[in-house]
Amino acid sequence: MCEDCKLMTGAGVAGLLAVCLVVATPVGAQTPSWAPADLLAAAKAEGGTITVYGSMNEQEALPYYKIFEDATGIKVSYVRASDTALFSRISIEHRARQRTWDLVVTTPVNRLPDEVLLQFDPAEAKNLMPQARGPNRRWYGVYANYNSPGYNTNLVKKEDLPKTYDDFLKHPEWAGKVAIDKSDTEWLSALYAHYGEQKGRKLAQDLAATLKPVLTDGHLALARSVAAGEYAIELNNYTNLIINTKLSGAPSDFWALDPVALIFGSVGISSQAPHPKSALLAANFVLSRDAQTELTKQGRLPTRPDVPTNPPGVTEILNSKKVIAAVFSAEEQKKWSTEFNAIFRPR
Predict the structure, then answer these.
(1) pTM for the full model?
(2) Same domain, 137 and 82
(3) What CA dihedral angle connects 35, 38, 39 and 42, to 10 degrees?
(4) Do 149 and 258 share a domain, yes or no?
């Protein structure tokens, strides 16, 4: 970290971490295809720095953005926080007309108001799966958050895993040993879409009554808790985070059930970006094959069909089920949050 790197803070927002990565462009390094010469030159002319807001943990983010720095010579100041903290900060700074950030990569950027995000057309977007391209050109999917249940392989036998969500109701002995993230509204909406609203709501209510799932705060924390044996089963989680714990050697794994909700960790550019050309270059990078291949090292699932998963075959397993894209507006999110809380929050 460079000596003049400063911790960035916003009014009322805590827990933000800014990390300034300073890496010189290697002599003789070949410019990658995602960095066309004209865009790279325009980006460097803006001063050679960029500020990225993101929820990706530093263990992944630092080597990830180092690839960008090594290729371009543009320094990345990475501000890491939860989705909620980032959105609060972005809202405050936008109202104050503060030009403080360039790029945001988090889940899900699509809930930000249109006036906060620039419309843009990165060249690498043509290589994404269709669902990962925002219809209004303000966001693009960087990694795919498929939703699935997961389990601790030391605590639950594979042959005992439910084959449908209805089968969970046959296991009242799991009550209190199951957990779910308190914000899994996309999963709930997919249940309703798959089963129909009436049956979907009844199934969710029965799952809540039978399993008494513990509500956790944070999908990565949930995956780690199941891997550590604090809970036997995660009723739903982001599949890539379950894979992340499995790759670390923990006794955890996922299995796929109908339906599989799909959302994205997405990229957006600030409509008030102080370095708009650098932001466009960085957006093209995060959608590139190089960047998405790097993300698979930690189990994240690519939005590009030409990037294989780690371990192989994950998307094939998930796509063998009914995949339902659940991309909400801010207003739709409020509706589904109310529905989720009515069913799963303890009274």
Answers:
(1) 0.86
(2) yes
(3) 130
(4) yes
Residue 166: HSE in the Cβ half-sphere, 13 Å Cα cutoff: 5
The pLDDT tens digits of the residues spanning 28-83 come to: 457 899 999 999 999 999 999 999 999 998 989 999 999 999 999 999 999 999 88
Residue 250 makes CB contacts below 8 A (sequence gap 6+) with: 224, 227, 228
Closest CA to 222 of 196, 201, 240: 240
Decide if 12 is inside a domain: no
Q: In this structure, what DSSP letter does residue 248 have? A: T
**Residue 272 resides in a domain:** yes
Alpha-carbon gap, residue 283 to 279, rounded angstroms: 6
Between CA 285 and CA 78 the distance in angstroms is 15
- Overall domain count for the chain: 2
Spell out where the chain has E strands. 17-21, 49-54, 75-80, 103-106, 140-152, 178-181, 214-216, 233-238, 252-254, 260-269, 301-302, 323-325
DSSP code string of 148-208: EEEEETTTS-GGGS-SSSGGGGG-GGGTTSEEEETT-HHHHHHHHHHH-HHHHHHHHHHHH
Helix 330-344 with 185-195: angle, nearest 10 deg = 80
* Domain match, 149 and 121 both: no
pLDDT in tens, 81-130: 988 899 999 999 999 999 999 999 998 899 999 999 999 999 999 999 99
CA-wise closest residue to 97 among 268, 271, 269 = 271
Domain around 271: 17-144+264-302
Q: Are 183 and 145 in contact (CB under 8 A)?
A: no
- 97 burial (CB, 10 Å; 0-12 / 13-18 / 19+) is exposed
